[in-house]
Amino acid sequence: MIFDPILDLFRGKAITIPPLDGALRPNTALDDAAVVAGLPSPDNLVWLDGRPVCSSGAAVIALEHGHPRQIAEFPAEVTALAVSPEGKLAVATDDGRLSEGGHEVPLPGGIGCITALAYGPDGALWLANGSARHPASGWVADLMEHGSTGSVWRRLPGQEFHKVAGGLAWPNGLLPDPAGVIVSESWKHQLIRIEGSRVTPVLRHLPGYPARLSPSADGCAWLAVFAPRTRLIEFVLQEKHYRTDMMAEVPRDYWIAPALRSGQSFLEPLQCGSIRSMGIHKGWSPSRSYGLVVKLAPDFAPVASLHSRANGHRHGVASVIEAGGQVLIASRGGDAVLSVGGEA
Amino acid sequence: MTPLVQMEKISKAYRGVPAVREVDFDLFPGEIHALLGENGAGKSTLTKMMAGVVDPSGGCILLDGQEVTFASPNAALDAGIAMVFQETSLIPSMTVAQNLYLGTEKFLNRLRGTYISAQQFLQSLNFAVDPTAMVETLGAAKRQMVEIARAVHHKARVIIFDEPTASLTPEEKRHFFALLERLKSSGVAIVFISHALEEALQISDRITILRDGELVSHGATRDYDRDKIIAAMVGRTLSGALYRKRDASSLRKPGRKALSVQDISQGRGVRNTSFSVFEGQITGVFGLIGSGRTETFKIVAGITKRDFLMGGTIELYDRAVRYYTPAEAVADGIVYVTEDRKIEGFFETMSVAENLFGGLLASPQHHGAVVRMSEMRDLAAEWTKKLNVKAINDNARVVELSGGNQQKVVIGKGLVQRPRLVIFDEPTRGVDVAAIAEIHRIVNDLADSGLAVVMISSYLPEVLNLSDRILVCRQGRIVEELSPLEATEEKIMYAAVH
Predict the structure, then answer these.
(1) Which of A278, B23, B87, B278 has the most neighbouring CB atoms within 10 Å?
(2) Is B376 inside a domain boundary?
(3) Do residues B72 and B183 share a domain?
(4) Nearest CA in chain B to A299
(5) What sign does the CA torsion over B362, B367, B372, B374 have?
(6) Using an 8 Å Cβ cutoff, are A144 and A103 in contact?
(7) What ipTM was assigned to the predicted interfaces of this complex?
(8) C-beta atoms of A18 and B262 within 8 A
(9) B435-489: pLDDT as tens digits
């Protein structure tokens, strides 16, 4: 009705979270998955020289037959990896630097928070810059400030980076195709397609904050969702003064905000949603962290999903890759790289 | 033993079209006699003749061996024959107790005394109905209970139940069957009409099967099984195809999310419920009566409104919608096929063609201000053929059709609007086996053609057989989602109750 926007001023606009149902129906697949390697906070997974490679803190680790071996170390935390068609490893770090094949790449001003890298079929390097105000490790602050200063950049072979789109709410994953690129825009809980100067949503209203995207073996895509949306956090995101005070006075780890892991400290807010009965933490309780991997169809509709529920431990999934009939999953909250069969 | 009621070569024709043809039927004291057949087979007409509601065109009725004719249902009631109708005959503006005692009031009545005695009587039948409640405030199941209680209250020697269990919950059904056993042991003869064949096999002593107004089979229940009954009812075997177990290959994959309901609330009936519906799938919704499933989907279809404050969000194809009238929902491609077809489904005194065309008129699919009769006729011809609606002729009023054909008209009325989301609420309630198979085909075809389909049903085999995903509703919210591959009747019922 045409009066709804006016009525919403009085009744308050409903902020609701889509349910986890249909293809997103909860299961315990991530908790049941085999551990390939235990690593502290594994982040971005790529396939390099026929073996999986993962970033973990400031190190880049190769996973050879389940044995982690450090192949590089950087002065700051690694925030994104990508492998070029020629096999060169591109590495971004939390201090805003980018190296390619071991050589530092000059970056234009405005890039300082590289959250994702990906090479397109034409050899172009796509870069997601999460925020103009915070480094990649400051993602919580950017969310709490309703940041929408992210941008997507592209560098054609032999050329400089140029900005493709700006004003994005924490672009956090890239999946290039011949026509453009699919970008996961975390704070807007959606995937968008950028084609030239046109930006169109392809999947909206996700129940969590989407992270990196990767192609699947059958021509579809994998999406990592690194944290869940909860009603309490949505409420806090509505309350400006409360949020400002919280950010000023409370240590960041204890903000009422999404997290990659939870249940580590008794000082944390939202202690399993206060839902523990007979000593059992209920899987459906609201939690700051969650583990979710979504398989997307070619039209980007979810078709299957893998979960680690509120009472699980494989939370904060940042990256997924599929190769050789295996799906490898980096769980930052679970400190492990997991493996499941190709079929979700 | 002498039959209590005997009908010999009984016939009835409407406008020259025979509904019952020379049927012999007998009923002994202390037996439960199941009368089975498709919709339109003549079961209701046969029993209505027994209860004095319609006059036979031929043959005779013997009561205790004496030939009788009943001028009215009251005359039959006086002779000890009571009928519990499929569509209840209670007076909505009176209380339950007043309805129970209607016709047997004393010269001076004390309302309090009436309520107390009604309360005791209802409790003795294990029916949880408030005797002071106005009948118009009761749901279908409770009205049915009052109707049954009234027949029992009249101390009838013969009680005819026409589809008594269609709107009862499994728990209420158990109480009802126990009541039938009690009546039977006290010598009451019971005629039991039901489309739930398992119930007939479970409760009855003898079975009589009609087809096209003729007697096709009768005998002791122990000589029948489900397949034999169906074969006799429809002249072919249908059972295997109707409720077969699903396998993984037969499940449809979800398409685009058509509907996303998030935290919607409406008073105490719908409480903070969330779910999604996808294109190309049948989403089955199961819940006991009063679980809020119908109310939830009536909000989606704009028939009722969600709470003004904190009412939640409904998104249709990623667009937030809040409907104030059903017309807005129809314009957006949402069709709700009601569970109460007689009240909300069709215009009973209008023809099939007028009803179908009425559906078109209500949608933006119809252009222009002038109604052309040829357009109406063409539309009716197209959809009666598509849905296999069997009517006496094109001008037949919908009220004259059997339950299954009426239901097809209601479905057709929605489908002419070319919807994107179709919500079926109890699509096969009070519909015979052959029509159930056809309605199931229609529902499956809609999902196969890529539409988002919701099917609300209280009949678990139907939910299990038809759905690609099953949502279970309890106390106003969706509490469980199950795949038909893992779901069993026990699992669904557990989620619906606990």
Answers:
(1) B278
(2) yes
(3) yes
(4) B256
(5) negative
(6) no
(7) 0.82
(8) yes
(9) 788 889 999 999 999 999 999 988 778 888 899 999 999 888 999 999 999 888 7
Q: One-letter amino acid identity for A308? A: S
Give all strands of the β-sheet with B477-482 in edge-to-edge order: B334-337, B421-425, B452-456, B282-287, B469-474, B477-482
Domain assignment present for A1 = no
Residues (pLDDT < 70) of chain B are: 15-17, 39-40, 86-88, 140-141, 166-167, 169, 234-245, 289, 392-394, 497-498
| Residue B378, H or E segment | helix B373-387
Please say whether the beta carbons of B483 and B287 come within 8 A: no
- What part of A 185-244 touches B (C-beta under 8 Å)? 201, 204-205
Residues B196 and B257 in one domain: no
Residue B225 one-letter amino acid = D
Q: Is B310 on the interface with A (CB under 8 A)?
A: yes
Domain, as residue range, for A289: 11-275+283-341
CB contact under 8 A, B312 and A204: no
- Transcribe A56-74 into DSSP letters: ETTEEEEEETTEEEEEEE-
Summarised one tens digit per residue, pLDDT across range B117-151 is 899 988 887 777 889 999 888 776 677 778 888 88
- Residue B282 with chain A: CB contacts under 8 Å: none
**Cα B245 from Cα B357, distance rounded (Å):** 38
- For chain A, what is the domain count? 1
**CATH number of the structural domain spanning residue A29:** 2.120.10.30
What distance in Å separates the CA atoms of residue A147 and residue A131, rounded to the nearest whole number? Answer: 7
Question: Is residue A3 in some structural domain?
Answer: no
Task: Name the residue among A1, A7, A14 with its Cβ closest to that of B313.
Answer: A14
CB contact under 8 Å between B262 and A204, yes or no, is no
For position B63, which CATH number holds? Answer: 3.40.50.300
Q: What values do phi and psi take at B205, rounded to 5?
A: -100, -40
Domain span including residue B342: 248-497
Using a 10 angstrom Cβ sphere, with 0-12 exposed, 13-18 middle and 19 or more buried, the burial of residue A31 is buried
Minimum Cα–Cα distance from A8: chain B residue? B309
CB contact under 8 A, B263 and A16: yes
Per residue in A163-200, pLDDT (tens digit) is 999 999 999 999 999 989 999 999 999 999 999 889 99
Q: Is residue A4 part of a domain?
A: no
Q: What is the residue whose two structure tokens read 């007939």?
A: B200
| Chain B 324-343, residues with CB within 8 Å of chain A CB atoms | 324, 328
Quote the distance between the C-alpha of residue A194 and its chain's center. Answer: 18
Predicted TM-score of the model (pTM): 0.73
Tell me whether strands A51-56 and A59-64 are parallel, antiparallel or unpaired. antiparallel
Cβ distance A139 to A130 under 8 Å?
Answer: yes
Cβ atoms within 10 Å of B73's Cβ, excluding its own: 18
* Inside any domain, residue B370: yes
The CA distance from A293 to A332, in Å, is: 13
Looking up tokens 């769980």 gives: A331
